[in-house]
Amino acid sequence: MKKSAYDQYIPHLSIDCVIFGYENKELKVLISNYRLGGGSWSLPGGYIKKTESVDAAASRVLKHRTGLEDIYLEQFRIFGDENRIVNSPNNAHLSNELRKLDSDRYSEEVIEWITGRFVCVGYYALVDISKVQTQPGEFDDYLEWCSINHIPAMMHDHREIITYALEALRERLDKKLIGFKLLPETFTIKEVQQLYETVYEKSFPINNFQKKMMDLNVLEKLHKKYTGASNTAPYLYKFKKESVA
Amino acid sequence: MKKSAYDQYIPHLSIDCVIFGYENKELKVLISNYRLGGGSWSLPGGYIKKTESVDAAASRVLKHRTGLEDIYLEQFRIFGDENRIVNSPNNAHLSNELRKLDSDRYSEEVIEWITGRFVCVGYYALVDISKVQTQPGEFDDYLEWCSINHIPAMMHDHREIITYALEALRERLDKKLIGFKLLPETFTIKEVQQLYETVYEKSFPINNFQKKMMDLNVLEKLHKKYTGASNTAPYLYKFKKESVA
């Protein structure tokens, strides 16, 4: 970030992204190790340019961190507590650490910017994890996919943001058929069911689930997926593009 | 607003409230006539003090405009288009009108503040319309209850904000049992049904609706409401407080 933070961005307003991926029957979230926060974990985030919409800012941040264009994303809540501020007594170490760093890189202005109060707009995004090439942002040391069941201690209210994002995902997964965005292009019905079971943390009767999926008329049947005995090989499907929410 | 706007409030961030009321089988919204906008209509709104949470700011604005404490409110979306700005070419008349006004009341700083870009946090609120005593804010001339079906031309994207709020209300009315907040303390089942039919713009079979309401086990039966023949008088109910969402 150059010295022109206040010229370039809307002050006191940030974006945090809960990027969901799905792998090995686990729902995962992309989190960032934040050296300046004493090595604590945080959500990938950023600021909003004065000349771009808040949605465009979220898309820009997501594209930068994942290397993907056209990611499915949705704002789900703002987090506006008055104590969302790094410059609070219990975060004094962070301001100090920032000041210890190369002053060319982090001017007093940038330190003032970063350590002020931020109202955060929470976005969740759904990606095909196999396509993501993570790239750290300016304040990330590195990014890591972490199972939703093993989230480490997070900065600020970032744990709470993940909880709200998961709630929003559960509400909308069924209604808006966005779950397919977490899967590779082709999949078996069983894989769809496993995804749903993972997100909702419960099991569904296989026949009911299969019938329900078929009744939605959004899947296109492809060829069989041969991995073992051909008589038990399941069909592969893909999501019909025109049915996208 | 005194000259200290930038000291007191978070810049570029505002709140707009879609305050729903229900009267004469109509869903209504409280809107404000905004003299400075050339007499156009807008949603009651305000800014966020640097020392208060965004939710607290919304409560403060709502309390001021309605005279009610403890209003049910919920944030539902932010509106962050880069062209949410009064100081755009097609709003030049507004800046000019502001400048024409008493300069004690509106300093250049305030004019710069008001006419800049704002990211808006949308809240919807549900009130018992019979209890509201409206009070104009600093930039309202007067407030008026307006049927959702006859909303006049609104400033900026305020019409769109109402549309999103109505969508959020419909989504949550059933799930969170918040509809009772639009009714007086006691009501008949038929009145509840009329409310639901008004919000969803469709009719429900009376027996199904009644059974569904009773099955929820959130209503307390009181005495009969005698207005005509006593043999057909319906029972009055009230919402059990402990069931509030």
Automatic annotation (TrEMBL), chains A, B:
Residues 10-170 form the Nudix hydrolase domain. InterPro entries: NUDIX_hydrolase-like_dom_sf, NUDIX_hydrolase_dom, WH-like_DNA-bd_sf, WH_DNA-bd_sf, WHD_NrtR. GO terms for molecular function: hydrolase activity. Keywords: Hydrolase. CDD domains: NUDIX_NadM_like. Pfam families: NUDIX (PF00293), WHD_NrtR (PF21906). SUPFAM superfamilies: Nudix, Winged helix' DNA-binding domain. This is NUDIX hydrolase.
